[in-house]
DNA sequence: AACATATAATATGTATACTTATTATATGCA
DNA sequence: TGCATATAATAAGTATACATATTATATGTT
């Protein structure tokens, strides 16, 4: 195995690129008075309306406690709503409110802009390889990390 | 621009892969009673012995307050040491202790293992493209994000 | 020297992210 | 049915991560 990069810098590259992506997204989400993580919740709900906090935490690869807190904040801002699950009295089903839907719709446009900014000057074939490698890294690292 | 992936999923891919990488590293750093972020500090100090917290925060792309807190914790564990900067009474110079050096040395080996686990089955040429694309994404996104 | 401005570190407050424990409710099985 | 076990959500505690403010010290200008 003779890769060009120092093995210790894979972590740096992942973390720094992810951080800067978050910071750019934060500049956009700020206008809607939410964080990028909260946008992530709204985006999931858009295509998974009425799922439980448990399922949501699995889909987002975050633990239940974290997602629960985020739902608290989003509910306080009236962007989502908790509904008692009629089939399981331990669970809540989470719904987007109308305002919540409007916020996601607005931010999806910003998100597309950020994507275009991010991939500027990158050849499509290379970007495809990048995606494939990222998925492989994820799969390789997931083998012994606990997740859904 | 017709990339294969949904523009909204670039963030997911970055965040999830970075998270899983952190979780795997955490399994290793735990044996040394530190976090992956604290390992990052020690690793930087290894090649930049005696730099200020300010410089350290710049090299790590984190803000000074965050790095200051991490130094507090590492100092409490006797892995690093603060020294008054003789040339600037506002500043501290941060040093690895002997124990700190041993911890980095041990974890660098673990880190190499994690790297190998991560890149298993990935063709070197594709990994090179991956690195290049990551760097381009970083550069593109850094244009309007504040950083060093 | 005196003063305005910049800078290094710290303090404070908010928001993830994860661990462990707790509570209420489900579910499987005797 | 009754009980052991599993599960959904929450609570409490620790550690980033960042924004804003504060304090002490430097530095530039007059």
Automatic annotation (TrEMBL), chains A, B:
The keyword Oxidoreductase does not apply. SMART domains: HTH_MARR (SM00347). SUPFAM superfamilies: Winged helix' DNA-binding domain. The keyword Zinc does not apply. Keywords: DNA-binding, Transcription, Transcription regulation. One of its GO terms (molecular function) is DNA-binding transcription factor activity. Residues 7-139 form the HTH marR-type domain. PROSITE patterns: HTH_MARR_2 (PS50995). This is DNA-binding MarR family transcriptional regulator. It comes from Paenibacillus phyllosphaerae.
């Amino acid at each position: 195995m003779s890769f060009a990069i120092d093995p210790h810098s894979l972590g740096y590259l992942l973390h720094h690129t992810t951080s800067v992506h978050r910071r750019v997204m934060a500049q956009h989400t700020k206008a809607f008075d939410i964080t990028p993580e909260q946008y992530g919740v709204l985006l999931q709900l858009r295509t998974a309306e009425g799922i439980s906090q448990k399922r949501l935490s699995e889909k987002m690869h975050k633990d239940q406690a974290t997602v629960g807190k985020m739902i608290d904040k989003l509910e306080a801002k009236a962007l989502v709503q908790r509904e008692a699950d009629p089939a399981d009295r331990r669970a809540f089903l989470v719904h987007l409110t109308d305002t919540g839907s409007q916020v996601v719709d607005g931010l999806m446009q910003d998100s597309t802009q950020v994507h275009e900014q991010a991939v500027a000057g990158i050849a499509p074939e290379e970007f495809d390889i990048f995606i494939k490698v990222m998925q492989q890294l994820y799969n390789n690292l997931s083998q012994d990390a606990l997740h859904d």
